[in-house]
Amino acid sequence: MKLLVIGSGGREHALVWKLAQSPHVTQMWCAPGNAGIQQERTAKTERPVECVNIGAEDLPRLLAFAQEKQADLTVVGPDNPLALGIVDLFQRHGLCIWGVNQKAAQFESSKVFSQKFMEKYGIPAAAAGTFDDAAAAKKFCASLGGKCVVKADGLALGKGVLICANQTEAERAVDEIMVSKAFGAAGAKAVIQEFLEGIEVSLHALCDGKTAKIFPTSQDHKRALDGDLGLNTGGMGTYSPTPFLTEAQLADTARQVLEPFMRGCAEERIDYRGLLYPGVMLTKAGPKILEFNARFGDPETQVYLTRLETDLVELLDASVSGTLGKLELKWSPLASVCVVMASGGYPGNYAKGKVITGLAAVNALPHRKVFHAGTARAGDRIVTSGGRVLGVTALGRDLKAAQSAAYAAVDKIHFDGAHFRHDIGAKAF
Ligand code: AMP
Fold this sequence. Notes:
The protein has 13 helices and 23 strands. By secondary structure, it is an alpha+beta fold.
């Protein structure tokens, strides 16, 4: 099979790395990819994965490329092309593509849509209201005592969620999102949720329109600094499994969330084939969904795919063709930890073009893999080219061992201004 993967981050490197191991794959491209993706080879034919300079949102050129190369399967990593309707476009042209269609992508591209869906189908969620009027929104914040979370409806690069401690902050947040439109059209509507306390975990489920197969749990670290301080980021590290849900509790959560989700999709005629990634708060009153994402998490993918033992091509193929029910997802009993190394200053301004050293030394170590995110080639060197630069990932017999192995690898890698959290996985202990 010939595969095209779309995207350029750590998630896409992990997808390429895992897909390239499949004996079904003879040739692979990634658009636009990064310096690490370029170093991967298909296991069967030992052909290098070719990075092609087409942006993940350039739908017409992606389509033309997939047609020209006669790709047997295109795999979409990021949310934007999904929300733009890349799956619908490829399907209209008779191409096989993995990812959710535009209607299903609304679960991520519209928080109002998701909130209303959760209420209609009884999916456990925060008490919330949806608004297109700022005065009514402020009144609702007051009814929650001012302690609430104000969320812009649309995609806002993960920045459209404002946590408010009191009514003054809540009114400021409503003004920022709905009146001064700090996030543009994404803030025409807003969701306001009660503030939930508890432990946050990431769930992932692969769906084929009828069946949803749940993954083990993982936990992201969104804040930039140790101890969950600092600004929100795209994610500074993950680990899997977490100790917060037993297998029985995970199965129970899956039942509470995925059954009504799939039933609701059937009723609303949403053909959900792709990845469903609910962000969940484990509260004293049970699990509550904070949001839905309609693609793999980044950096959750890095820990999941290092633990996945099932052939990923077969899984994605079954997700497209509606035959997931026949497949079993097998997971390594080993734990996985991914520590993100970022550019100094991220998530604010940061410099690019810093030379990265130590990568070869780490990739020579067993049970360790460095997934590239913001990297580029400059002659024979690899340099930084983004905020999140690397996802240093390690497996271990337990979380402690995986954590030590990941940080031992981080210590070997250097670039000017590198910053990372020192406490990835610490909440588990
Ligand atoms: P979201 O993009 O909706 O997942 O929100 C981003 C982050 O804000 C989450 O990962 C949580 O840490 C936090 N958050 C969102 N909604 C709530 C809520 N209702 N209560 C407490 N924290 C929340």
